[in-house]
């Protein structure tokens, strides 16, 4: 991997990750905040933009379901985050990570949201990483990957990082999006 400014954005799953140790060849910046919802991330996008990242890994949404937000609310807010990031950072590489399992009672709604997000990612030239198969045992996190059904153990993070490494390699194979080129015309040539 190349030396890039790699920004991780999300709630406690992101905050508790040791991204700098797991991606030592990059300048890994952790902007995870425990307890945050999609609306919280949307409200603090100025911090994301100010960090001037080359690539962004976004993983958010689980707390919204715990607070009884609808699939539509979660999906729309994540879409707004992605659209705003693309508008404000047109050259950034975006990787959207699926919402992880969070108890069997939430599974159907989270899977529905993830289906919508997978389809949406391409519309903002982002890549999508589905970590559900690597972390789940049916509708819940694998027992050895969690102690509370929500947060990851060291083994859980290792499974996530094992999925994340090749996803970031694919992301970096894509050329960065470029800013629109403005052509200055000589007034005399018109």
Automatic annotation (TrEMBL):
<feature type="domain" description="SGNH hydrolase-type esterase">
    <location>
        <begin position="19"/>
        <end position="159"/>
    </location>
</feature>
<dbReference type="Pfam" id="PF13472">
    <property type="entry name" value="Lipase_GDSL_2"/>
</dbReference>
<dbReference type="InterPro" id="IPR036514">
    <property type="entry name" value="SGNH_hydro_sf"/>
</dbReference>
<dbReference type="InterPro" id="IPR013830">
    <property type="entry name" value="SGNH_hydro"/>
</dbReference>
<protein>
    <submittedName>
        <fullName>Lysophospholipase L1-like esterase</fullName>
    </submittedName>
</protein>
<dbReference type="InterPro" id="IPR051532">
    <property type="entry name" value="Ester_Hydrolysis_Enzymes"/>
</dbReference>
